[in-house]
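Methods — Computational structure assignment.
A single polypeptide chain was analysed. Its primary sequence is given first, followed by the predicted tertiary structure written as C-alpha coordinates.
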Amino acid sequence: MMTKTVVILAAATLLASAACRSRGGEPAAPTATAVPTATTPAASAPAGTGFEKLAARWLREDGGYILEIRSVSPEGKADAAYYNPRPITVAKAEAFSENGALTLFVELRAPNYPGSTYRLVYDPANDTLVGTYFQALQKQTFDVSFVRR
Protein backbone atom coordinates (compact mmCIF):
# COMPACT_ATOMS: atom_id res chain seq x y z
CA MET A 1 0.00 0.00 0.00
CA MET A 2 2.84 2.41 0.87
CA THR A 3 4.52 1.74 -2.51
CA LYS A 4 1.26 2.48 -4.33
CA THR A 5 0.91 5.76 -2.41
CA VAL A 6 4.48 6.78 -3.28
CA VAL A 7 3.89 5.97 -6.96
CA ILE A 8 0.65 7.99 -6.97
CA LEU A 9 2.38 10.95 -5.30
CA ALA A 10 5.25 10.80 -7.81
CA ALA A 11 2.81 10.66 -10.74
CA ALA A 12 0.82 13.60 -9.34
CA THR A 13 4.02 15.61 -8.98
CA LEU A 14 5.04 14.95 -12.59
CA LEU A 15 1.57 15.76 -13.96
CA ALA A 16 1.30 18.96 -11.95
CA SER A 17 4.77 20.03 -13.04
CA ALA A 18 3.93 19.42 -16.69
CA ALA A 19 0.61 21.24 -16.36
CA CYS A 20 2.30 24.30 -14.88
CA ARG A 21 4.73 24.45 -17.82
CA SER A 22 1.98 24.02 -20.43
CA ARG A 23 -0.32 26.90 -19.43
CA GLY A 24 0.21 28.83 -22.63
CA GLY A 25 3.06 30.96 -21.36
CA GLU A 26 1.25 32.11 -18.23
CA PRO A 27 3.53 32.27 -15.23
CA ALA A 28 2.87 29.77 -12.50
CA ALA A 29 1.71 31.07 -9.13
CA PRO A 30 4.58 31.98 -6.78
CA THR A 31 6.10 28.96 -5.10
CA ALA A 32 5.31 30.25 -1.62
CA THR A 33 1.58 30.17 -2.33
CA ALA A 34 1.32 27.24 -4.73
CA VAL A 35 -0.47 24.12 -3.61
CA PRO A 36 2.09 21.33 -3.08
CA THR A 37 1.59 18.74 -5.80
CA ALA A 38 1.65 15.89 -3.29
CA THR A 39 -1.66 17.15 -1.89
CA THR A 40 -3.67 17.45 -5.08
CA PRO A 41 -6.82 15.35 -5.49
CA ALA A 42 -4.93 12.77 -7.56
CA ALA A 43 -3.13 11.87 -4.33
CA SER A 44 -6.26 11.50 -2.23
CA ALA A 45 -8.43 8.44 -1.80
CA PRO A 46 -11.85 8.84 -3.42
CA ALA A 47 -13.76 6.54 -1.04
CA GLY A 48 -15.01 7.96 2.26
CA THR A 49 -13.68 11.45 1.57
CA GLY A 50 -16.36 13.48 3.36
CA PHE A 51 -16.30 15.98 0.49
CA GLU A 52 -20.09 16.37 0.78
CA LYS A 53 -19.47 18.48 3.91
CA LEU A 54 -18.13 21.23 1.64
CA ALA A 55 -21.31 21.58 -0.43
CA ALA A 56 -22.86 24.87 0.74
CA ARG A 57 -22.85 28.62 0.28
CA TRP A 58 -19.94 29.99 2.33
CA LEU A 59 -19.72 33.64 3.38
CA ARG A 60 -16.44 35.44 3.95
CA GLU A 61 -17.64 37.87 6.57
CA ASP A 62 -14.81 40.39 6.20
CA GLY A 63 -16.03 41.44 2.78
CA GLY A 64 -19.28 39.73 1.93
CA TYR A 65 -17.67 37.42 -0.62
CA ILE A 66 -19.59 34.21 -1.35
CA LEU A 67 -17.98 30.88 -2.24
CA GLU A 68 -20.63 28.44 -3.42
CA ILE A 69 -19.70 24.78 -3.56
CA ARG A 70 -22.52 23.11 -5.46
CA SER A 71 -21.06 19.61 -5.39
CA VAL A 72 -17.81 17.69 -5.09
CA SER A 73 -17.16 14.45 -6.99
CA PRO A 74 -15.61 11.47 -5.17
CA GLU A 75 -12.37 12.30 -7.03
CA GLY A 76 -12.39 15.82 -5.56
CA LYS A 77 -13.49 17.94 -8.53
CA ALA A 78 -15.72 20.69 -7.16
CA ASP A 79 -18.48 22.54 -9.00
CA ALA A 80 -17.97 26.02 -7.52
CA ALA A 81 -18.97 29.65 -8.00
CA TYR A 82 -17.55 32.82 -6.46
CA TYR A 83 -19.33 36.15 -6.01
CA ASN A 84 -17.93 39.59 -5.15
CA PRO A 85 -20.89 40.45 -5.36
CA ARG A 86 -20.96 39.67 -9.09
CA PRO A 87 -19.79 36.28 -10.36
CA ILE A 88 -16.02 35.79 -10.74
CA THR A 89 -14.80 32.92 -12.92
CA VAL A 90 -13.65 29.86 -10.99
CA ALA A 91 -10.90 28.27 -13.08
CA LYS A 92 -10.32 25.34 -10.76
CA ALA A 93 -11.87 23.98 -7.58
CA GLU A 94 -10.60 20.81 -5.95
CA ALA A 95 -11.07 19.07 -2.63
CA PHE A 96 -8.57 16.67 -1.10
CA SER A 97 -7.43 15.24 2.19
CA GLU A 98 -4.17 16.57 3.59
CA ASN A 99 -2.85 15.12 6.85
CA GLY A 100 -6.38 14.01 7.67
CA ALA A 101 -7.85 17.48 7.07
CA LEU A 102 -10.52 18.14 4.45
CA THR A 103 -8.97 20.81 2.22
CA LEU A 104 -10.34 22.94 -0.63
CA PHE A 105 -8.29 24.72 -3.30
CA VAL A 106 -10.00 27.33 -5.51
CA GLU A 107 -8.37 29.31 -8.32
CA LEU A 108 -10.06 32.43 -9.70
CA ARG A 109 -9.55 33.86 -13.21
CA ALA A 110 -10.84 37.32 -14.07
CA PRO A 111 -9.29 40.74 -14.86
CA ASN A 112 -8.80 41.62 -11.19
CA TYR A 113 -8.23 38.01 -10.10
CA PRO A 114 -5.61 36.58 -12.51
CA GLY A 115 -4.75 33.40 -10.65
CA SER A 116 -5.86 34.47 -7.19
CA THR A 117 -6.32 31.39 -5.01
CA TYR A 118 -7.96 30.16 -1.85
CA ARG A 119 -6.54 27.28 0.15
CA LEU A 120 -9.06 26.40 2.85
CA VAL A 121 -9.35 23.69 5.50
CA TYR A 122 -12.70 22.55 6.82
CA ASP A 123 -12.99 22.99 10.60
CA PRO A 124 -15.72 20.55 11.68
CA ALA A 125 -15.83 21.82 15.28
CA ASN A 126 -16.90 25.29 14.09
CA ASP A 127 -18.36 24.31 10.69
CA THR A 128 -16.11 26.86 8.96
CA LEU A 129 -13.55 27.00 6.17
CA VAL A 130 -10.29 28.56 7.36
CA GLY A 131 -7.13 29.25 5.39
CA THR A 132 -5.42 31.70 3.09
CA TYR A 133 -6.27 33.86 0.10
CA PHE A 134 -3.51 34.76 -2.34
CA GLN A 135 -4.37 38.03 -4.12
CA ALA A 136 -2.42 37.66 -7.36
CA LEU A 137 -2.43 41.34 -8.43
CA GLN A 138 -1.04 42.49 -5.11
CA LYS A 139 1.08 39.36 -4.65
CA GLN A 140 -0.13 39.20 -1.03
CA THR A 141 -1.51 36.39 1.08
CA PHE A 142 -4.26 36.98 3.64
CA ASP A 143 -5.71 34.79 6.41
CA VAL A 144 -9.43 34.24 5.76
CA SER A 145 -12.40 32.29 7.04
CA PHE A 146 -15.82 31.44 5.66
CA VAL A 147 -18.98 30.57 7.56
CA ARG A 148 -21.76 28.38 6.22
CA ARG A 149 -24.85 30.39 5.17
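Note: The helical segments are 2-21.
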